[in-house]
Structures are given as structure tokens and as C-alpha cells.
Amino acid sequence: MVPIRVQIFENLATGPTPGLKRSARVGELAGAMPRAPRLLAALSLGGAAVLLSPATFAELSWIWASKADAERVMLRREFTVPAGVTDATLVFTCDNRARVLVNDQAELTCTDWNEPTKANITALLKPGSNWIRAEAANEGGAAGFLARLAFKTADGKETIIESDTTWQAQARGETDWKPAESVGSYGAEPWGKVLASVAAGTATAELKPLVVQPSEIGALPGFRVELLHTVPKSEQGSWVSMTVDPKGRILACDQYGGLYRMVPTPVGSNKTAPVEKLQATVGGAHGLLYAFNSLYVMVNEQGGGRQGLWRLRDTNGDDQFDEERQLRKIQGGGEHGPHAIVLSPDGTSLYIASGNHTKLPDGMEYSRIPRHWDEDQIVPRMWDANGHARGILAPGGYICRTDPDGSAFELVSHGYRNEYDIAFNALGDIVTFDSDMEWDAGTPWYRPTRICVATSASEFGWRSGSGKWPSY
Questions:
Q1: How confident is the model over 23-60, as pLDDT tens digits?
Q2: Contacts of 438 (CB under 8 A, 6+ apart)
Q3: Residue 147 in 3-state DSSP?
Q4: Region class of 304: left (phi > 0), else alpha (psi between -120 and 50), else beta
Q5: Among 229-238, 292-301, 317-326, 409-418, which stretch is predicted with the lowest mean pLDDT?
Q6: Which residues neighbour 207 within 8 Å (Cβ) at sequence distance 6 or greater?
Q7: What order do you get walking across the sheet with 41-45 strand by strand?
């Protein structure tokens, strides 16, 4: 079965059909025709001849980042939509898988490039600027992303948006968006004409909303949940850390970008909360804390030796952070890098959590734990078969304390895999949350996700692969 393109031509006997332009493409048949030596047919349509011919997808391309060996790639395309869209269909696929967001409202997924995803996205489009954003992943071998969006207006006009080099791409670890690279035209091997397998009829792929609605969140009596802001990921990234300044404003950081400030609207208000991007150059934070008249930023995703604890201050009263100072380098990055910053219960010091891919802060001055930690292996260790954390040794993830100036660091607890955040209970105990490698579930050395009370000088026994200590 092959898809069929519909084109309108003038009826040479009667002249142009009113409202139709010569060779105007008006759509694509939802069905398909059996293969035949010559796939041509003519139908009568209001005095016009309708020519059915195989779709060529002449401009459609498989695209990827300029870094051809990138395993994780972000792709995006901005496009303009007129008022009165009556029907919009998106078809896409990816080798090996992709998650696609439309205006950061809902998501679609594709997990097998042989089975493209098709969905009706009419309700997600709005007049004016719109975005398609894809998070694409490759698992070795050829990599490519393919997409085609078609939408119609009430007057019958159709617009086609196809994956090509007008899209923007960003490989994981990069900070700049670059033009996407074409890695093959539609029909090229190893993929072939994969869109020919898209089933005819109404698109049925499930659209999953990205934002949980307040009505779906349970709350105790006397509390009400309100939605303040939906972060447009194509414009403001992914907010993974937040704090509140003395004026009640929310400060947040895009995981791979900069800092933002939002003024919450009054309780019960249906107004939009204003958001501004701050002028600070520090970003890529996994942890934020406003304390001691400063914004502390745990830089994680910025390279060039910028990872570590920073202190930002407004020294000239213009409500922007003009002073940026790195208090201590902490080597590590990504999902298992340096994370949260929390104020101590007595308000005099900072506590910091870091995952197991993070080295101890440069020049760790103090340690409540004897510094002779080691692997303590009797039975030979089996490293992770997929290579995760291979070669990473004790002490693993850790919690440490420092003063407001970052002049001295003290190791408090370690032996975690990847504790992301910490909190204090009413007694002043440190509480954190840790998890084990999910694909180790069922093995004798798997330790289920758990809440840990990080007592002073504690060792929680994470070791790479099968080497971790038993739970007891």
C-alpha cells in the first residue's frame, strides 16, 4: 500500500473551477491504493479533474544534530498558524525513539521507527507562533528523526511543515541551537518509505497532557491547588530547581539554560504570573537557595570548570545579580552530579547533596567520617553490564556542609547512589531519598528506593555494580 497525493488541475473544457488554483495541493488521501504498474486515476469533482499520484515527499528529510554520533538530541521548529484551523495531523518517527511536544501542552511518543506515530493535534494549535519540539534518542547505528505536519483552514488551504534543515538541533551537552543536519531524504535506506505504513483513517495516538490540572491533585481540607505557570519548554527550558527570595518571588533555573524570576499572582486570581529571564550568566543549575542576601546556585550542566557552588548578589540595587562568584569547584555533571542546596535549621550554614558521579569538593577541609573509605570487596565485583558507573569508586554520593562564604566544607554523610534533595525534620535530622539502578531489580544486590535518615558520619554503602553493601 502507498499513500496518494491529491492535486487539482483545471478542466480544460470548462475553464478554471472557482476558488481553485492551478496545481493547488489540497490534501492527502487518508487511504491508500494497491500497488499497480501505473498508479494514476481521474475523478470528477465540480468540473475539475483530480489526479491521484504517488506521494513524493520531495522536501521531507531525516534530520539529526550536526554531531552525528550524538545519542541524545533536541529538535525544534517554530511555525505560524492562521486563525480558523479545522484539521491538523502530525506524523513522525525516530530511529530509535522520540518524545514530541506540541506547544508544550501535550506529548506523543514513538518507540519503534518502523511504526510511525500519527495524531490529530488540531486542539493544540493556536493562531500565531507555534512550536514542535522533539527529544530524540539513538541506541547505536543510524540515527534520524522524521516528521510531517499538515493543517487546513476553513477555506480549504493546507499548510505542510516537514522535517528539514530549517529545524534547529542541539546535541546533549551543547548549549547553542544549530541548524539541523539532513541525514537522508525520505525513502533513503535504511528506513525506506516508512510513512507508507501509517494506517489510514482517523489518527488514534494518545495525546498525554504535560501538566497535571489542579482538580486532579488531592489536598488536605482548607488547602487549594492553583496552577501558576506552565513552563514553555521550547522557550524557557526545563525548570529543575526553585527557591523564593525575600519579596516572595520564585527564582527558577532551566536545567540547560539560565535563571528566571516569576511573581506569583494573588491567591484566587486567574491572571497570568509574569516571568522574566534574569541577566546572570550562571545557569544549568540543579540547586538554588536564597539566603544571606544572596542567591546560591549549584551549577551542574555548564562546562568549562563552572560546575560547583556559586554565590550571586545584587550590589548596585538594580534588582539584578551583578556579582557572580564561584565559591568552590565541585567536579561532576548530569543527572548524578551536584544537586540541592538547603539552609540549615539554625540558619547559619548550607547543606549540599551530590550524586555518585560527583567528586568531593576541591580541598574538603573537614570530614566527620574517617577518610580511609574503600571498596571493601571480598567476593569479586560484577560491574554494570551496560557500563553505568563503571569505574566509579567510594565514597559515592554525599552530603556536606559549608559556611555562607564557602570557605570550609565538611563531609557529613556518604555512600549514596544519587540523592537529589535533602530536608530536615522537626528534630533537625537530615532526611534524603535514594534509589538503586532500575535495571538491577530482581538481583540479589538490588536495594529498593528508600528514605534515608542521614545521621552524622553515616555510610550508606553504595558501591558500583554488585559491590554495594546489603541493606542490613
A1: 333 333 333 333 332 233 333 333 333 333 334 444 79
A2: none
A3: strand
A4: left
A5: 229-238
A6: 106, 107, 108, 119, 121, 124
A7: 24-33, 2-9, 48-54, 41-45
Beta pairing, strands 397-402 & 2-9: unpaired
Instruction: Measure the CA–CA gap between 254 and 260, rounded to whole angstroms.
Output: 8
Burial of 6 (0-12, 13-18, 19+ CB in 10 A): middle
At residue 439, the 3 state secondary structure works out as: helix
C-alpha span between 279 and 261 (Å, rounded)? 11
CA-wise closest residue to 186 among 137, 157, 144: 144
Quick one: average pLDDT of 1-23?
33
**Cα–Cα distance for residue pair 31/443, rounded to 1 Å:** 49
DSSP codes joined into one string, 393-431: -TT-EEEEEE-TT---EEEEEEEES----EEE-TT--EE
State how far the Cα of 297 lies from the Cα of 324, in Å rounded to an integer: 10
Indicate whether 13 pLDDT > 90. no
Cell, residue 35: 500497488
* Paired residues of 88 in beta bridges: 151
Euclidean distance between CA atoms 91 and 209, whole angstroms: 18
Question: pTM score, two decimals?
Answer: 0.67
What contacts 315, CB < 8 A, 6 or more positions away? 322, 323
